[in-house]
Amino acid sequence: MNPDLAALLERMTRDRQRLLSLVMPLDAAHMGAERRGGWSVGRVLEHVIESEAIYAKLLAHQCGKPAPEIIAREPENGADVATQLAGTRDAVMAMIDGVDDDTLYRLVRAGHEEYSPLSVLENIDLHDREHYAQIVEILGGAAPKPAREARDESPVTIRAAVDADLPRLTEIYNHYVENTPITFDTVPFTVDERRAWFERYATTGRYRLLVAEADGVIAGYATTSPFHPRKAYETTVEMTVLCAPEAVGRGIGRMLYGRLFDEIAGEDIHAAVAAITMPNDASVALHEAFGFKRAALLEEVGRKFDEYWDVLWMSRTF
Amino acid sequence: MDEPHVLSARDGLLIRDAAAADLPRLTEIYNHYVVHTPITFDLVAWTVDQRRTWFAQFSASGRHRLLVAEVDGTVAGYACSHQFRTKAAYDTTVETTIYCAADMTGRGLGIALYAALFERL
Question: Of the candidates B43, B88, B92, which has its C-beta nearest A185's C-beta?
Answer without folding.
Answer: B88
